[in-house]
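A protein record pairs a chain with a discrete description of its three-dimensional fold. The shape at a given residue is found from the number at the same position. Here is what such a record looks like in full:
>
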Amino acid sequence: MAASQPMTIPEILSLKRFAVVGATRNEAKFGHKVYMALKRHGYEVYGVNVNGGDLDGDLLYPSLAELPAAPECVVMVVPPSATEAATAQALAMGVRVVWMQPGAEAADAVALAEASGATVIWGGPCVLVELAARDR
């Protein structure tokens, strides 16, 4: 079976349902900024934080497996060790796009996602920058 063509960033941003692993109420952290930016842009977005809780009136889920619906794209805003586990979980759920924010990249997770045929964005493109560029 041939590997599918990776999706481009504009194609990814045309998806509707995202999950942010590392979403947090702490406004200084990028997990908060990414979650809020996606929400402001009209995406259906789920926050994932191992501690649970809530963000902007929305429930934060302790894991991807507990989401009420599978996301089309999972955005990683966590340390690389957490990215590895979350990527494996996302792929097991059938997620086909994993976007690792700067600082969240994990070589093993990239290799795992690429081997599964998923699209992986890593090594620099920030979802916040891409959303802002789309607004111009």
